[in-house]
Amino acid sequence: MSKISRFFKGGGSAASKGRGGPSPQEALARLRETEEMLSKKQEYLETRIERELAIARQHGTKNKRAALQALKRKKRYEKQLSQIDGTLSTIEFQREALENSHTNTEVLKNMGYAAQAMKKVHENMDLNKIDDLMQDITEQQDVAQEISDAISNRAAFGDEFDEDELMAELEELEQEELNKGMRDVRLPSVPSTSLPSRPGKLLACHFMFLMLKACSSTRKRAEDEDEMKKLAAWAS
């Protein structure tokens, strides 16, 4: 009995029969064995067809009977080869369908395992407790935001004082400083000796020195005034 006959007649193992049918792995292995066997059969038939063609060419019209017999055998081999091609196509389709079914079965099995694991994880979870927890988290986030806002706001120190009164006092201080600066400025005394009709270089330099000194005092007062304004702006 050939391998293909044993396959279609249920020539499986005793273990497979005891389980009520072969496993997908066993069936796939049998289908691959059958494909391999038919492929070898194809190669054999193709070789015989080439041989019969060579015989027919060899005899030709010299020995028509032998040539015709070779062509008849070639036709039978070609018919068998065509049948094997169809059988291989059917087996290939069946094998692919079985592989897909086995894959789907494994996928569903693993998805079932995952569903059971998720169910086990969620067994100890109470939705009410989760809602309470999320509410507590939200409340604490609000409290944290309020604290951050309170810390980031500028402290209003010194707001109990009247700003107008402080500005008036500051203006008085500036006026006092200005008056004091004016008192400190001393004009150069008039020389007792008579000036020459044409002053020399020494007199011109002395005059420039006095003018620069007066300008320096005026600039210093302006800088002091700027500093007092900056101090008042910072205090407000």
TrEMBL record:
Signal peptide: none
Biased composition (Gly residues): 9-21
One GO cellular component term: multivesicular body
InterPro entries per UniProt: Snf7_fam (IPR005024)
Renumbered residue ranges of the record's region Disordered: 1-25
Topology with respect to the bilayer: Peripheral membrane protein
GO biological-process terms attached to the record: late endosome to vacuole transport via multivesicular body sorting pathway; protein transport; vesicle budding from membrane
UniProt keyword terms in alphabetical order: Coiled coil, Cytoplasm, Endosome, Membrane, Protein transport, Transport
Key word Methyltransferase present: no
Main location, first listed in the record: cytoplasm
Segments passing through the bilayer: none
Subcellular location as annotated: Cytoplasm, Cytosol; Late endosome membrane
Homology family: Belongs to the SNF7 family.
Protein name: CHM4C protein
Gene transcribed to yield this protein: Chmp4c
